[in-house]
Design goal:
alpha/beta; Rossmann fold; 6 strands; 34% helix; globular; binds NADP nicotinamide-adenine-dinucleotide phosphate
């Protein structure tokens, strides 16, 4: 197919819960990489994770919808939360490629700490051929491109996002300690957490 490629950012993460750091990162990267759309894909059953600390997928999906509703370039997919069994990024990208136009270029965006572990991911054989990666890091976290799996060095971009000083772990801890989380996440998400008694 000829013409300009459709540039799709795929924002993968547990979003447990989604916060302003994720939103600033997605918007900053959309602008920096000229992406046509950023699709948030909350993980269903994240590989390698103890699910006790993780809110049910339906709640994480709903919070992601609430958080992204006002940005015309953002959308949310329930593809991973509807999948039975473990969720692998390769499967997600292959499924999205069937839905989006043929000339779609994929940019998988996630935390730099997750990308640093990419050599431990399952089913990565042709992953570097079907997507590029954008590794978003918190200030102070330095990911050396040479330290990641050599197959992914050429297709990975590293980008530091100051707003990622906010973290889901810190938000969950503050909720447990009954401390304020105001302004760390969108108000609608804060209210949703309180109404559904999540993370308490
Ligand atoms: P995670 O443990 O939830 O997050 C790891 C780190 O990255 C945390 O510091 C997290 O901060 C940050 N982070 C997560 N998503 C982010 C995003 N979209 N933008 C910026 N920072 C982000 O990581 P995970 O959810 O397990 O994995 C990340 C993605 O990689 C998911 O889409 C997952 O499905 C995929 N993955 C795939 C495989 C596989 O295919 N085999 C294996 C592992 C991971 P916060 O806690 O503040 O979010």
């Amino acid at each position: 197919m000829s013409g300009k490629a459709f540039k799709l950012g795929i924002m993968g993460g547990t979003f447990n819960p989604i916060h302003q750091g994720h939103l600033v990162a997605a918007e900053f990267i959309r602008d920096e990489f000229n992406l046509d759309e950023v699709l948030f894909v909350p993980s269903g059953k994240p590989p390698h994770k103890d699910s006790n600390e993780i809110a049910p997928p339906e709640h994480r999906w709903m919070m992601t919808v609430l958080a992204t509703a006002s940005n015309e370039h953002f959308s949310v997919s329930s593809l991973e939360i509807e999948r039975v069994g473990e969720s692998y990024t390769r499967e997600t990208i292959l499924q999205l490629k069937k839905i989006y136009p043929e000339n779609t270029e994929c940019y998988f965006i996630t935390g730099a700490d997750a990308i640093a572990e990419i050599s431990t991911w399952h089913k990565t054989e042709d992953l570097s051929q079907i997507t590029k990666f954008i590794a978003a890091s918190r200030p102070g976290y330095k990911l050396d491109i040479k330290s990641i799996d050599s197959r992914f060095q050429e297709c990975t971009y590293l980008i530091e996002i100051p707003a990622l000083t906010i973290s889901s772990t810190e938000i969950r801890k503050r909720i447990k300690e009954k401390r304020t989380i105001k302004y760390l996440l969108p108000e609608a998400v804060e209210k949703y957490i309180s109404k559904n008694k999540l993370y308490g």
